[in-house]
Design a protein that fits this description.
Layout lengths: L1 E2 L3 H4 L30 H4 L11 H13 L6 E8 L2 E12 L4 E2 L7 E2 L4 H14 L18 H4 L4 H5 L13 E2 L8 H7 L16 H15 L3 H13 L12 H6 L3 E2 L4 E2 L6 E2 L8 E2 L1 H12 L3 E2 L2 E2 L3 H8 L17 E5 L2 E9 L4 E7 L4 E7 L4 H16 L22 H4 L1 E5 L9 H7 L2 E6 L5 E5 L2 E9 L2 E4 L5 E6 L6 E6 L7 E4 L5 H19 L1 H13 L18 H29 L1 H6 L3 H5 L2 H23 L4 H23 L8
Antiparallel strand pairs: 1-3, 2-3, 2-16, 3-4, 5-10, 6-9, 7-8, 11-12, 13-14, 14-15, 15-16, 17-18, 17-24, 18-19, 19-20, 20-21, 21-22, 22-23, 23-24
Length: 669
Amino acid sequence: MTRSPTRRRFLAGVAATAATTGAAGVAAGSPATDPAADPPDADRRAVLQDDGGTDIESLLDDLVESSLEGQTASGATVAVVADGEVALTKGYGVADRESETPVDPAATPFRVGSVSKPVVATALMARIQQGDIDPQAPVSTYLDASLDDAVGSVTLADLVTHRAGFEMSNEGLWITDPDDLRPLPEALRTWSHARVRPPGEAPAYSNYGYAVAGSVLGTVVDAPFHEAIAADLFDPLGMTDSSFRQPLPDSLAEAHATGYGPADTYTDGEFPYVGIPPAGALSTTADDMARFVQLHLNDGVVGGEQVLAPETVAACQRQWATAHERLPGMAFGFVESEHGDVRTLRHNGGTPAFYSDLLLVPERGLGLFVAYNGADGGSAAREVLEGFRSELLPDPGSNAGDDGTLSPDGQPTRTDDLGGTYRSLRHSRSWHDRVTTTLQADTVEVSVADDGALVTTGGSVTRRWVEIEPLVFERVDGSERLAFDTGTDGEAIEYLHRGANPTTAYGRVGGVDRLSLHAALTVLSILGLLSAVFGWPTAAAIGWFRSGDDTDSGLAADPRRWRDRPAALARAVAAGAAVAVLVFPVAALVHLAAAPFAVLSTPSLTFAALFALPVLGLAGTVAALGFAARAWTDGYWGRFGRVHYALVAASLAVACWLLWYWNLLVPPL
């Protein structure tokens, strides 16, 4: 199914020349405006970079079909809104490779992941505008008392702008067995994510935070969350093929696009479920998302009906939080960004088998939704968004100098305090996925060059920045800004904020949190443990071979006589502990490879049973440390043997500390 007026048609009445005029309407950081004071539609439509000579369908055809080449995804679905009207909904490719069913924008649902979040936020804003919810009141006011400790004084505004202070964890996120799904209030209690910093101190993307926000909606409506959002938003808006219900209704499951993950294929709606649904459980069609986009670009009017009040839409789109007034921030459910002088609102979403992206340009009445049925759809969606923006929005230009670059003017403010390693706060602290989330978290090395430029290095990318005001920097090509911020003490530099990602700050990394330290300790510990596991048996075998009998040769001693031969017992205990500590990570990795969602989100009993190994390793370590002390007082072995045993005991202690740090010492509870 295709709905596709040309760009010439939907740009009718708009000037035919490119423009670089400033953004009109709701500017970043401005309060919600009075709709009655909004300029007429003709004035509100800022000039687009288009002469009306190219068909919008041709543009999307070129972009989407090209983006699908070489992808895991077999199909895509697209919706475009312009001047507040639906300009295009279209499907590309096939929803399922085996049946070769084409993607139908009106009838083929896609999983949209975190694009669910602005949908949830919009429903919440409607209730806020009705006076049913106070966004600045503690959300514990609306929730079960059992969640008081988890949420504390966190407000709905904190949750929706990712400033509640929760860690980013996979706990309870992905559920493979529908029998393991729980009602949202119970899921929040069972899979409670830790609060690791005070609310409002720094942004850190949180799926759990949005689940708590969705629970507020369910409580206020007095219905399960998926029913509450359907009654409050989907039904009035006419989104008849959209649902947060899990498992999906049969009609949607049967029509749903097949999801293609890195190694698995998910058909008939049987993809991994989201244990905390408001964070990303929405399945929807391009036609339904076109209505949602139209709602936000047409002052709440869809199909000639006033679905939401203009004030509600304006309140959703105004800025609710930012790390610094010179940086983009968060609207209510949307992420701000800038395309030159044009303010855009965006949210993307990824699941194990789908990817989606949503872009709104409120000041231009322009919006795009695109979704792919492949986990690697992110690169494809970026191609489409970039082509869409470059074709239809003015050239962002640059604030750089005549030579195209900004130049530093002396050393920046607090030069000596800026350098160091900064890591994205988007990682776990208390769950056993701490190691996987930390290794995946972006890390930036910061230094100051001799000429005063700030230098950041992330991976293989190095960029230079120039200070434009104290602790605020702009890239030398003028394309992005970043800012530094202090922590709770108000003195030391603790956070780095990038304008390209206002949902998550970067925290300064030092001391025992440095990965380089952990890598060095891991290598040294493994070498020490291997010297016990292989060195002592080898020495015992050599000693036995040379002696020709069972004389005292360490582990060759008769186990029944260990009480009389504590030196042999000491080595047996340390070697056994070393084996337990070394085998555990290998076994855990095997489990992770076989069932990644279960291991990271809802560990099975077999995975929990593996933790008997580090527990035994810990007990052996304590005993080995005691034996290490006795070895010197009781004269076990020679000097070299005693030193070696002490090093093995130390290696065990270091290994147990590493397992403790990464939440891998005791079973996940």
